[in-house]
Amino acid sequence: MTALDFLRLDLPALLAAILACGTCGLLGSFLVLRRDSLLGDALSHAVLPGIIAGFAMTGARAGLPMLLGALAAALLAVVAISLVRRVARLESGAATGAVFTSFFALGLMLMEATGARSVDLDLDCVLFGQLESVVWLEAQGFGSLLDPAALAALPRQLFLLAAVALVLAGLVALLWRPLHLLCFDPDYAAAIGLPARGLELALNLMVAAAAVAAFEAVGSILVVAMLVCPAAAIRLLTDSYRAQVLGGAALGAALGALGYALAGPLPAAFGQAFSLNAAGVIGTLGGLAVAGAMLLRQLRIAQPKPAAISG
Amino acid sequence: MLGYNTLVVLAGCALLGLACGTVGAFALLRGRALMADAVGHAALPGVVLAAILVASLGGNPRALPPLLAGAVIAGVLGVLSVQALTRGGRIREDAAIAIVLSSFYALGVALLSHVQTMPQAAQAGLGKFILGQAAAMRAEDALWAGGIAAFSVLLCLILFQRLRAACFDPDYARVMGLSVARTDLALLGLIVIVAVAGLQAVGLVLVVALLILPAATARLLTHRLPVLLLVSASLGALAGALGAAASAFEPEWPTGAAVVLAGAIFFTLALLLAPERGLLPEALRRTHRRIAATESHFLRAAWEAQEAAGAGPGTAGDRWTPIAALAAARGWSEAYASRLALWLSLRGLVARAEGEIHLTPRGAAAARRAVRAHRAVELHLLGLGATDIAGADRLADLVEHGLPAEMATRLLAEPSALPQSPHALGPGAFSSQADTLGDSENATRQNFIVRPLRGREADGH
Predict the structure, then answer these.
(1) In this structure, are residues B237 and B17 in contact, taking their beta carbons and an 8 Å threshold?
(2) Rounded to whole angstroms, what are the CA distances from B173 to B185, B190, B375?
(3) Closest chain A residue to B115 measured between Cα atoms?
(4) Which residues of chain A does B264 touch, with a Cβ-Cβ cutoff of 8 Å?
(5) Per-residue pLDDT tens for B238-294?
(6) How are strands ordered across the β-sheet holding B350-353?
(7) Which of A221, A222, A237 should be substituted to probe chain B, the one whose Cβ sees the most B Cβ atoms within 10 Å?
(8) pLDDT in tens, A47-80
(9) pTM (2 d.p.)
(10) Which of A301, B70, B211, B438 is 20 to 30 A from B163, alpha carbon to alpha carbon?
């Protein structure tokens, strides 16, 4: 593996993995804290018909229409879930399950009907993610990193991911206190006049945006892994809000980088012939991270710190 | 054109839908429906590993039983993982399900990508487990799936009493000596079995929908468990058969999506049209109630206008009343009151002529009932110690409509006669107070609501 190969093939994919997993990890904490983890599952599936519709209307695999379509679909799904909960008097899990599977099925059928599948949007991309297809063939060497022309030719998924990551990180920083209240004491938040419903909606849309940006890189089901696993692992280890949110993002990004490295480049570097689906490895690592955190927590409980007892 | 193979697959998928509908009903009632999502996704690494194992042992990697066995083992592992994760209490069940389904599925994806590079044709047909492809099923596969489905339905019927007790009254079940924990275990087992049996036809991503949608549809339609089971099972069977048929005509379609869309359409229809809970019947009922309330307000205003004119209840039907006067008494616009008059004349309750109305005999009877109900509530409120007469009038306007005639009789001291109104009647009787009412009205309402209704025995009824 040469440096040029790394620049052309691995660097963009690695960046995409880090950005996608970091963004999902950042927002995942709010889902886990609000006991709303299934919403991640629901939204990552429910955005599919919106993506296909956005694609069908513009006929191109452009970022913005797909993002807007996905947000609209996510909004619809959230409304539908609360409607189903109220009218059919289902518990929220069942209502969520009924709605997101219907949306996903609709998306799959739309994919067939609009011919999107044969053209550009691959079923494999939805199910498995296509981290490996994020390549930067224009790179001529490390000098290209400073060359505007070459940088402009970076894969467009990277631009979408970076933009979404930036916007979402900014929003989280901006809404840091209100989100904190919303997670831990929604009643108090409502009592002091925070627009709790609006915040919830904003959070849902943020999750949908993260899901759709990460969608292409890791696939819809692995978005769920990245939303929930890092946040749950950190949740097992800390009670601090700051550590939870920032730790979730950091662990997500780290898992993304490690998973990508373990899937292909690392075995290749050691002369091994096999390579695995990177998104799959990242998701598996997510599960292992939770299991590891579980063990760590049990060890900690078994040996309580003396300071914790006296204090 | 429908060959033997297609027919068998169709029957197998229908049976599968039937089983999913039956088990799904219990799973939904017990709040375990999403476990099927975890099981379905968790099955992927099991299927792939089984295929690798069989291929490396030189067997036929397409043979269904080893793949299903792998799926069952992985599915059970998935269920156990969910339970292990929730044990500490730090991670709730929804998070645990999301973690298990996504990380197991991820492992499956990673393994699948490895299988695809293997020299043997081990990966052949594994893709169909993800989104389902009924067209690729052989008669033999369909027989397996159908057999498993039939077995699980049978098990549901045998365990019917236990499952019902666990779903509706766990405490009662415990008292009766039925172990709820063991029943739950059986239910989880059933979920694993039907989810795995459904993999080929529906696919692991969407198999959960086949458990939730028919059961949720049935719940919208009925309250009775046997009916619910029947409806859920038949809708599941119908969805399964439709999906398989779609797959037979369009082999490229993901069967799972077709099955789930059929189920989603049933569910949406029930959501809109279910007689008791549906959105449209609910909206119709609400509109009907509102119209009936407005009608009775109009009729009462017509009656009271005549009372105010000195006609008296006995001769109420004999005078004509200007619509403008009614509109003023109710605070309606004249155009609105005219439209109401037109509507009531179509119903034969009033006669109209030149901007005036008079009650027909039927209308007078209805108006008398409305007046009686209104005054019964008013007088009752005043009897409870309310001092704000205008407030009592307004509160009575709100609550009188649900009042059956017998209840009005019970509230009235002199049941046979029509009581006098406690306040002045006629146009604008309250319009001068209405502006200043605001707070006191609210206070009075509060007063009425918190004050418990006294027993009527005290008043001699």
Answers:
(1) yes
(2) 15, 20, 51
(3) A276
(4) 98, 101-102, 105-106
(5) 999 998 888 888 877 788 888 999 999 999 999 999 988 899 999 999 999 999 999
(6) B321-322, B356-359, B350-353
(7) A221
(8) 889 888 888 887 666 667 888 888 899 999 999 9
(9) 0.83
(10) B70
